[in-house]
Every structure is written in structure tokens, then in C-alpha cells.
Design a protein that fits this description.
8-stranded mixed sheet, 13 helices
Amino acid sequence: MLPATVTTLAIVIQDQASLRASARDSATQQAVLWQGDVLEIRGQRGEYLQVYDHRRERGGYIRAVQVRRVTLSPGEAPGLLAVVRFLRDAPGSEALGISYAAAYLRAAPAESLTAEPLDAVGTMAERLARRASNDKAKARDPALAAHLEVAAQYGLKVKSFDRNGHVQICYDGEMFRRVLAMPGAEPDQQARAALGLTRHECVDPGIGPSDRYQLDLWRATVLDRVPATGLDAQLASRLHARRAGVWSAVAFEQARRGEPTQAAAQRAMQELSAVSTAELGEEAQSEYTDAAVRVGTVRWAAEFTTRATGKLAVATAPGAPGETCVTLEDTRHPVSNPLLKRCTYGTVWTASARSNSAGTALALAVQPLDTWRELWVFRKGAQGWTVDVLPPGTSNPDLGYVEFAGWTPGAKRMLVAREVRADGHFRRRFEVLRLDTLVADRQASAPELLPDFERWQDSAWKHQTVALR
């Protein structure tokens, strides 16, 4: 925090500035200072300012060119705000921008305060947390940890999660909450606040199912408070994409709770279709792809369960606590004699069951997590019936789906589509699998590059999938 009784301060503008014991370059270094650190000025000796660092409780001297003097008077407030506006969108200068914003909030008369400085602080704090979560950015910029400490002195808090060996750092969003609560906040400011409070990667992975459901409902409410009309095209599309991802999570949780899922899943698909991809920049394109994959994982939640009309069908029944047991049935024989039975803790989308014409194979979508949907493939072989699980990907994946896309004539091949995020990169591919081995004969990044896809893709899949967006 800024010293309460001091009106003239020095804000450090350079990283690794030295606080020395006396006013000379050869003096002992008392501390290493970083941009955004704030010091109380107590005097001057030549090229050095005599200062006191309240955060470290240490006095010393610093070169005057390494700081900017700030007088916390109402007359200086407009100049401070101008600097905040300049630094707000300057990556790498978040700690300095937050320091100037804190000075502005001290200097500006209460009656003149708007949501703008709060929006700026929240934006910079969120960007700083994003950079601190990026392993490559941390390797390139050793100052990131120090900048987080500088931000913390102004009361900004971050939280961290371990996600598969990766540390995710997130801003707690206090400034964004204040923006949403402030009368007169502009629509763009409200939209940025809602996006900052609802990031998917900032949901605690250790949260329980009930608490997660309530959190997702809260996230949906926050996003719905901000109308997309009146926003610039990119921000409106980001808002639609985030809503799509959140409503997908709501639909999955409703399925696990045994509640109707169609409304939430259809809302997710509607929000995804409202995104204007032509207006998105490179970073926002990644947000859109993320939303599309999340919607793709739960798209079967929008469908009403129907009984299969082919030679094979599936039925579900409760198993052990939390389990669902799937039985494979021959529709031409009594259901009391199932062909195969397998249980899972995942959500079974029975409406997805698709049998081939020969009655020797059936594909079924099973979703163990809200961001992960697998494909179960039941096959009849020489030793009887078996079931194999096809995952969306195998190389450090964390988000994805794989789905049935059609059968080729002769019951020898199956068409599948996969979309997955692995190691931070999205990959979409279409494959023709041999049914006897489930190994891809051919694969491509677009279905039109595969003649079998062009000719034999399932018409219902083509109409419903998000893989062809």
C-alpha cells in the first residue's frame, strides 16, 4: 500500500534498480528494486534521492533517473490517469501501471472516480497472472515473480493451482467485482470484468461436484448480466465464446445430477454460433476454438434420447454408487441376454449409439469429464464381443472429444473426428479407421481431403457436429 501520510513519492520505473547505503555507485546495495516499487522521498544528494522503502522497512539512496516523482495532489490526478491509460495495454509494464493506478486513486477526488482505473488495474493484474502462468514467459523474464510481489503490496491477490504438473496462476478478480458493482460502468468495462471473473483455467480443479455446479451457475449469471449488444465486435464475440464454454459445463453437471440438459446444451450451441470469427484476433481465435471444443464435448446433451433402430442397441442401469452400467443388446433377441456389459463413472450419452448395418459394431459416446469425451467401440470378433475406448488424444491432452462420423460399406471401416488441446495447442483431424484394428488407414486436417469422408459421412453427424464449423 502507499504510505498514508506521505504526499510526495518516488515510483521505480526500472527493474533491478539498486537501493544503496549511501549516495554513490560503490556503496553497499541494500536491496534490489523493481518497476512499480514505491518509495518515500526524504531528501536528495546530487544524482541520488534519499528514500525509505516501507515494504522492506529499509532506507537508502537511489539514482533519481530510475524513479519518477509523484505528488498525490488532486491537480496531478489527470496526469497520473494518462500514464495508467498508456501502461494499461503494455505487456511487461503491469506492475508499473498498477503502481500509477494506486497513486491516481489516492490523488483523485472521490467524486471524480469512475470504473476506468479499476478496470485498468484488473486488466493489468489479470495479464500479469497470465504471463506468470506461461512457462516460456517465466524462462524469458525472471522479473515476473518480483512483479507479482510488487502488485501484492497494493492488495492485489493471486491464487495458484497445480494442473498436471503445470502451475496456473490467477488473479482473484476483486477489481473486476468492483467494476460490476459500480453504477455507471461502461458496457466494455463490464464485459472485461465478466470475462476476467469467469476464466475456465481459473476454476479450482480440486473443487467438489456440487460446489463446481454452483460456481458454473454463478459464472453463467455474471456473463448474462452483460448484454452483448453495444460492445465492439471482438469483445462481443469473446463474451459469446465464454458463455458457450460455461453453459457446456452447466449441461455436463446437470447430466451428472440426473437433471434435464437440453436447455443448457442448446444455449451453449447458440452462443457458439453467435461468435463472429471474422472479427477475432489471434488470441481471441484461441478462445473461440477452446469454446468450440467444450461445446463439442457435450453436444449430445442437446439431443433427446431415442431408441436405436439398427441391429444393435445399448441400455443403461445403475451400478455401484456413482457408476452407470452399459449393456449391448441385439434388437433381434430378448434383452435378458445382453451381448456385453461394461460399467463406467462417466456420463453415457445413449442418444449417440450408432450401429453398423451388419450388426457387428456399435459406437457410443461416453464422457468422464466436463472437457473430455471418449468413444466406446463395441466389436464382434472371433472370440466374441469386446469394447475398446478411443480417447481424443494421447500426448499430454487436457481438453478434447472424439466422435463417430460414419460407417463405410462392408462394415470394415469407421469414420471418426477428433479435436483436442495438447501442450497448449489445438489439433483437429478426421480419420478412417480399420474396424478390426481401430488403426487409422488415412487421416487429414479436413474431411474433404478424404474421399471416404466425402462419400460416407453420417448425415446426422454432419448436421450436428461442431467439428465442421
